[in-house]
Design a protein that fits this description.
Layout (H helix, E strand, L loop, with lengths): L6 H17 L5 H4 L14 H12 L19 H12 L8 H12 L2 H12 L5 E4 L15 E5 L2 E8 L10 E7 L10 E7 L5 E7 L5 E13 L3 E2 L5 H11 L1 H4 L3 H14 L3 E2 L2 E2 L4 H29 L5 H26 L17 H12 L6 H12 L7
Parallel strand pairs: 1-4
Antiparallel strand pairs: 2-3, 3-7, 4-5, 5-8, 6-7, 9-10
Helix pairs in contact: 1-4, 4-9, 5-6, 5-7, 9-10, 9-11, 10-11, 11-12, 11-13
């Protein structure tokens, strides 16, 4: 198993870093590059961040893996992973779901009309999408979704509810999964639609999370969608959703935020003096930091296994589950260690002038709890590992 990047890939990383260094001098860099937002930093949810994405588009960084006939460069997916690794290192927005699950699905299954309308906009970073999958009773078991799509004239009438739609409050279009055949087996009766977010039948209720990030509850009331905006074939939506997860393998599992957080924790430990001496001299602190350093290297290897398996054309479901479980819980352990080292001062909110590191660690501890839930809870990841790797029976 070779984890080394080629000379061409390393040259691309150097190019991206030079681009980021130049953008770090811009007036709105503090908005664009904000790792303290944790996983929420991947979003293009402000004007400055959208401008940044358009600059990436101008450099040809958007849609690199797309076929040339659709405006891409036909590069291997590893280049999109390397790009997102560097972007996530500084807390900049990633290239987004428009390039992956939306764009790639349209390329493979979309009509000529949908390709002509959306692919150029995605390549120019002119459009944002929200993924309408999760529902109140269909989270980890996505195939149980109930939002109805009923035939009406030359289109479909949609009614139902979605939960935890991260980008709904700023997206332009809804990539919406709906049940088009309630009599079919639950995986067989799902279809995908593209719906404008400004439709009068769509009501968005923001939900502020523990980490102060915004997700959304979305109500769909008598929203009519022309059949032209059905993605692919009727009742094939589940297949498309699963394929879309494959497209995202190279971009979901970035390691650099963990590395940067550990380095920040190490700097913190070297700066704290208590009872007349540096806490870095204490054996218990040294032992804990050594354990965390080992865990960070473990997370790196788990992440590399995902990338390697995907690059070989495999479906790294087990590797991805291990990586997601270990990495998200490690983010929590790093933040918890910082709060323990800081003592009661570490509990100060970022709004307090005296908060250490601007309140970074207290904020991080709250925000990273959400990462152990989103994209499949830690419990779900354990079930995947137990069932697929250990071949253990699961009882419910």
């Amino acid at each position: 198993m070779n984890f080394d990047f080629s000379a061409a890939e390393q040259a691309f990383v150097a190019e991206v870093r030079q681009f980021i260094e130049g953008e770090a001098e811009s007036d709105d860099a503090a908005d664009v590059m904000n790792p303290n937002r944790e996983s929420d930093s991947i979003l293009s949810d402000t004007p400055a961040r959208k401008r940044f994405n358009r600059k990436m588009a101008e450099r040809g960084y958007i849609g690199m893996s797309w076929p040339k006939e659709y405006g891409g460069q036909a590069r291997p997916g590893i280049y999109e992973y390397l790009l997102n690794e560097e972007l996530s290192r500084v807390g900049a927005p990633l290239i987004g779901k428009g390039v992956g699950c939306v764009g790639q699905t349209l390329i493979r299954h979309g009509s000529d009309k949908l390709k002509a309308e959306f692919l150029p906009k995605i390549l120019r970073a002119e459009v944002e999408f929200a993924l309408g999958y999760t529902e109140p009773g269909a989270g980890s078991d996505l195939a149980s979704l109930k939002l109805k799509a009923e035939r009406q004239g030359e289109g479909w009438l949609l009614n139902g509810q979605k939960m935890f739609t991260t980008s709904a409050h700023f997206a332009d279009w809804y990539w919406l999964a709906a049940r088009t055949d309630p009599s079919a087996k639950k995986h067989k009766g799902i279809s995908l639609f593209l719906v404008p977010m400004d439709d009068p039948g769509i009501t968005i209720h923001p939900i502020e999370t523990l980490g102060e990030h915004v997700t959304n509850q979305v109500f769909i009331d008598n929203v009519w969608v022309h059949e032209d905006y059905l993605v692919g074939e009727v009742n094939k939506g589940w297949t498309y959703i699963c394929e879309a997860l494959d497209y995202e393998r190279f971009t979901f599992y970035t390691f650099s935020p963990l590395e940067e957080k550990f380095n920040a924790l190490l700097s913190l430990v070297k700066s704290i003096r208590r009872n007349g001496k540096m806490i870095s001299e204490e054996a218990t602190v040294q032992s804990r930091m050594a354990r965390l350093a080992t865990d960070v290297e473990t997370a790196k290897m788990l992440q590399r296994r995902v990338i390697y398996a995907a690059s070989q054309g495999d479906v790294p479901s087990i590797e991805a589950a291990m990586c997601k479980l270990f990495s998200t819980e490690l983010h929590q352990r790093l933040s918890r260690a910082a709060l323990d080292f800081l003592g009661e001062e570490g509990l100060l909110h970022k709004s307090c002038d005296d908060a250490p590191a601007g309140g970074k660690w207290e904020w991080s501890y709250r925000a990273t709890a959400l990462d152990t839930i989103g994209a499949g809870t830690s419990e779900i990841q354990k079930n995947i590992i137990a069932r697929k790797r250990l071949e253990l029976p699961l009882e419910y």
